[in-house]
C-alpha cells in the first residue's frame, strides 16, 4: 500500500464495513424485481408488504449516500484532489443514473402500494432490475478504486463518524432489522468490529436477535428465511 496521505494515519483505515453494507444492497436489489413481479394485480395486502420492504431498503441507501456526500467526499476533495480526479467524473455519472432511477421509484412505489396495478408493478420491477445493475457497477468501483484512497486519506475517527451519520437516519424501531440485514451474510469478523465497543453480553446477543428479526422479515417478503 502507498504511504498515508494524512499525518495522523499510522495504519490504513479499516474500510471493510463498506463492503458489508454493500452486501445488503446487492442482495436486496438483486431480488427486488422478482419479488415485485410475484405480486398479483389488485393484491394490495401483498403489495404493501413488498413496498414497505423496498422503502426500507431505499431509505437505508439514501442515508448511506447522504453520509458519503456530506462527510466523505469533501475530505477527499480537500486532501487528494489529484488522486480523486479520475474517479470524480465516473462517480458523478453513476450517481446521476442511480438517482434518476431512485426518483422514479419514489414516485411510483406509493401508487403501486395502494393500487397494485399490473402496469405499475411491471414498471417498478423493471426499474429495480436496472437499479441493481447500475448500483452494483457503482459499488464495485467504490470498493476497487475509491476505498484504497480512503484508507490512506481519511482517519479511522472520520470514517466512523460517517458510519454514525448513516446509522442516525434509521429509526430505532427498524435498527434491529437493519442490523439483521447486515449480519445475514456479512463478514462475521467485520460485524464484530462494528459491535466492538458494546458490552460483552450485547456483542453476543445483538447479532442473534438481529439475525432472527431479519429471518422473520425475509419470510414475510420472500417466503424464505434465507433469501
UniProtKB/TrEMBL annotation:
<feature type="domain" description="Hemerythrin-like">
    <location>
        <begin position="22"/>
        <end position="149"/>
    </location>
</feature>
<protein>
    <submittedName>
        <fullName>Hemerythrin domain-containing protein</fullName>
    </submittedName>
</protein>
<dbReference type="InterPro" id="IPR012312">
    <property type="entry name" value="Hemerythrin-like"/>
</dbReference>
<dbReference type="Pfam" id="PF01814">
    <property type="entry name" value="Hemerythrin"/>
</dbReference>
Amino acid at each position: 500500500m502507498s504511504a498515508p496521505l494524512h499525518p495522523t494515519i499510522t495504519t490504513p483505515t479499516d474500510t471493510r464495513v463498506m463492503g458489508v453494507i454493500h452486501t445488503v444492497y446487492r442482495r436486496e436489489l438483486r431480488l427486488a424485481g422478482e419479488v415485485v413481479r410475484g405480486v398479483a394485480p389488485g393484491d394490495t395486502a401483498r403489495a404493501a408488504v413488498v413496498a414497505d420492504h423496498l422503502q426500507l431498503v431505499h431509505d437505508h441507501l439514501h442515508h448511506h449516500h447522504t453520509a458519503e456526500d456530506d462527510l466523505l467526499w469533501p475530505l477527499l476533495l480537500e486532501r487528494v484532489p489529484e488522486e480523486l480526479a479520475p474517479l470524480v467524473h465516473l462517480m458523478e455519472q453513476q450517481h446521476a443514473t442511480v438517482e434518476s432511477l431512485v426518483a422514479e421509484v419514489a414516485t411510483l412505489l406509493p401508487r403501486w402500494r395502494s393500487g397494485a396495478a399490473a402496469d405499475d408493478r411491471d414498471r417498478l420491477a423493471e426499474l429495480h432490475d436496472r437499479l441493481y445493475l447500475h448500483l452494483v457497477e457503482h459499488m464495485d468501483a467504490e470498493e476497487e478504486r475509491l476505498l484504497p484512497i480512503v484508507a490512506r486519506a481519511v482517519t479511522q475517527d472520520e470514517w466512523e463518524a460517517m458510519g454514525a451519520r448513516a446509522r442516525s437516519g434509521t429509526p430505532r424501531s427498524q435498527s434491529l432489522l437493519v442490523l439483521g440485514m447486515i449480519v445475514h451474510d456479512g463478514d462475521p469478523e467485520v460485524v464484530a468490529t462494528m459491535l466492538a465497543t458494546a458490552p460483552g453480553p450485547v456483542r453476543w446477543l445483538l447479532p442473534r436477535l438481529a439475525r432472527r428479526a431479519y429471518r422473520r422479515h425475509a419470510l414475510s417478503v420472500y417466503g424464505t428465511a434465507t433469501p
